[in-house]
Amino acid sequence: MLAVGAVALLWVGFIQWRIAALPDEKLAPHDVGVVLGAALWQTTPSPALKERLDRAVELYQAGVIPRIIVSGGYDRADSLLTEAEGMRNYLVDKGVPSESIYLENEARSTLQNMLFSQTIMREHGWTSAVIVTHRYHAVRALDMARFLGYDSPSVSPMESSVLSMAWHKGRETLALTKWQWDKMRAAFGYRPIT
């Protein structure tokens, strides 16, 4: 039992190290930015989602991305808008032209965010993407993009000033562990998306 605990502790330490070690790279221009959804509060992006959207606006204004895919379906059965619709409205209010924003309205998980956004990219002939999300989430999102065959994806991770990092990093440890398990199972024919 002690050995299992030691292995689990090492695994958690390894995941937290991967999250902390993710470099902040200087980004060259890319075809598109992909903003991963989080929660809407009624029709307004949550404070954490606003952090992601504000980063996308910075990248757009700096000329790193000429267009933005906003990815996210309905949060709950009683949602008034999809996450993507709420994100589009916020970006337009921040000065991003609506014709530069592409909606992915179906995703309900990070893997679906990446897969469904990739479909939009292929439809338009875009090959390079910057994934916009929080640092704690960026390692898994980037790994998923690579798994799905994105062409040299980049990530623009940011820290959060509004989220409880202890809770989110703990949750992400479990989510990243599940993702690694799903990848191993995929080698034997398991499809992680249904």
TrEMBL record:
UniProt domain DUF218: residue ranges: 31-160
Gene3D superfamilies: HUPs (3.40.50.620)
GO cellular component: plasma membrane
Signal peptide: none
Protein name: DUF218 domain-containing protein
